[in-house]
Design a protein that fits this description.
Layout (H helix, E strand, L loop, with lengths): L4 H16 L10 E9 L10 E4 L5 E3 L5 E7 L1 E9 L2 E10 L4 E8 L4 H5 L33 E5 H6 L5 H4 L6 E5 L6 E5 L2 E4 L2 E2 L2 E2 L11 E8 L15 E7 L7 E9 L3 E11 L6 E13 L6 E14 L4 E14 L34 E15 L4 E24 L5 E29 L2 E25 L2 E3 L2 E7 L11 H5 L3 E23 L4 E14 L3 E2 L2 E2 L4 E17 L3 E12 L4 E2 L5 E2 L4 E14 L4 E18 L5 E18 L5 E16 L15 E10 L8 E10 L2 E2 L7 E2 L2 E11 L3 E8 L18 E9 L1
Parallel strand pairs: 1-7, 12-15
Antiparallel strand pairs: 1-4, 2-3, 2-5, 5-6, 8-14, 9-10, 10-11, 12-13, 14-15, 16-17, 16-45, 17-18, 18-19, 19-20, 20-21, 21-22, 22-23, 23-24, 23-26, 24-25, 24-27, 27-28, 27-29, 28-31, 29-30, 31-32, 32-35, 33-34, 35-36, 36-37, 37-38, 38-39, 39-40, 40-43, 41-42, 43-44, 44-45
Amino acid sequence: MKIGFKDLRIVILFFSILMFFSSSLFSQSRNGRIMGYVKTSDNEPLSYASVLLQDTKYGDMAADDGRFSFQAPAGKYTLIVTYTGYITIEKEVVVVSGQSLDVGTLIINADSKRLREVVVADIQKNKFSKKMTATVARMPLADMENPSAYSVVSKDFMQEIVATDLNSAVSNVPGVIANNGVNDSGNDFTLRGFTGNATFRNGLIVNPRTQTEIANVERIEILKGPAGTLFGGLMSTYGGVVNTVTKRPYESFRGDVNYTTGSWGLNRFTVDLNTPLNKDRTALARFNGVAHTQNSFQDAGYMKSLAFAASLAFKTSERTTVRFDADIYTPDKTLNAYVRNSQLLNYESMKDLKSSHGRAFTSNDIGTKRTSYYALAEVEHRISNNWTSRTSYQHGESGEKESIFLVLMYNTDNTKVSRYIRPFDVYEMKTDNFQQNFIGEFNLGKIRNRFVGGFDILARSTFYQYGTFKDNTYSRVFVFYDDVTLDDTTPWQPITRTEVNKLERISTTGIKNSDYSISAYASDVIDFTDWLVAMASVRVDRYKNQKTVTNGVKGDDDYHQVQVSPKFGIVAKLWKDKISLFGNYSNGFTNVAPSMGSNGEIRKWDPQQSYQAEGGFKFELLDGKITSTISYYDIKVKNLVRTLDDGTSEQDGTQYSRGFEAEVIANPVRGLNIVAGFGTNKNKYTRYNESYQNKKMYFIPDNIFSLWTSYKILDGKVEGLGFGAGVNYVGKANLNMVNDFYVPDYTLLSASLFYDQPKYKVTLKVNNLTDVTYWSVYGQPQNPRQFMANISYKF
């Protein structure tokens, strides 16, 4: 069975039609009505404020006079008022069937002028804490009711720390480090002892060849631990899931323009424009753009990029909303892979190679231009008062032409490193992901059930063409270029594209890989009592790897695997809405290609498995001014395919990863915000081949700590003046599997000074304040002291 783009369009059409005729399958509940007004502190109506019942789809938009009115099923709810995407009011309400509830006038804690000038975040309490999200559990579920640990990075926090890329945006997530990919493709994350990727966009899978541009990102959601039950398939990982949620349009005409400049020629310009498209505001649009350029702090290396994103929303009826979302990103940069063969060195760590920290092994003549393009179409339909259907389709393309990778390999001469070149004529990756979800709630007797059920179809293809080159008497895809001396005084010859193109090519190979998965899943959150909540989830995933096509000829390497992935969780509300005890048992899996078994025959392996047991506490204290998650996890991996001494394989490998994580997000007094996180990890191969046995996974630090705190003066003559300070500590990490060479630990300090006014904000920031010499967990030199200045205009 081969599924492609045309097939998925037919599937989307079919299920979109089915969705509109499915309402008869669900019973209607007798409703009550909620009504009232939304006004500002100076008694002005706040038109276009959104009034919603938390965890539901019920709500209304305030009219010109501030009035709202809508129906909802009987029950207890939290009524929230949001404006331009910010939650401003929360109020407990009880809806009674057949009756109307007048909540009176809800007063926003700001005057109309202040709100209209877009200083909304200041009136929020604990503005960086986790807000309601419908993607972490694939249903609206409050953090205090979720039996898993996760972190959320909002666009407000990214703006506060002047983040210019995904790596810096997540620098304060507990137990997490982000880097450019091992081979400078995509973003890699260290998550609970494993390396994962940013491969989900709006809850659907993408396969990026570029790093993720954050100009169009509303928030970054990081789910901790194996999440194969709801985020499985081809991109399932053991350590967790990274999901970027793009910006969506809202009902007001708003926007901002940002310019950032700084060290090494940093120039970054972004624009965010939101506008209604009609008078009744049922058609909305939002546009984001960015132009970015920066050189490396080293003697070569650069990055230039352009990006544009558009998001449209159409409320076609009271029950149905149609959304479209697309973005394109085109970075042009030098590509640097991590350094290999560190086990050959007599040194102990990267600090012994400090003399070459400021030098690049590459040149600006071998930069590569890449492109990533994503498009999403989604139909959300309220089938009944209790049930919603969400039909989503996302297409992605990412790749480049004529790329040149620089690959460095240490050798037994400790004073030199060999430069190798890996050119690709073309590299293209495509994904088509269709997803259908039914989300709702029902009662079994007096027991409330919140449910999501759906299925997911993912088709993925990769085509790459490369050369094999003559290297003395050998044929190689990694071709030797030269040896260079590891110091800061010996001249190196810049690598040129002209010289690379002169390399003697023996042959050219074009390979197309394609695979797909079809999955069905269900998750039920059961409220047994007011204080006890349980989650039971399961996924069935059928994976099919198509025959590889090499230079137009199909191989015989196709195979398929079926996996059942369970998850169970429980939450005990020890103190309602303030302290919860949570625990979960979850599964993750990866598909494994057939290979030579120890019996001398090609064996089809079972999927490799990971199982996590996690427990901890969640806090929301002082009326939400302090939120915290503290957890301990134990992940066991089994069914690892390990290589034996004779080159064959056996599927009996095992591994564990254990650790502790803590996150605190606080707003103890007005204007003061604190975000702190700590993570520690121990992992080991308990059964593997001899060289890996009882060894720690490389690229994974033992301890990670981060703290960011800022204070903004909210009253008086210097209202808007603020200060920020941060610290990031990363423990040492092994650079190879034999654990004999490591990247040293480091501590970075940062500080900022800002002046925030209704129409503009100016920020000055210094990263790596003490000018520490340090390397990424891949052994790549990182920035010394960096100065940045940002100015934003809001309208």
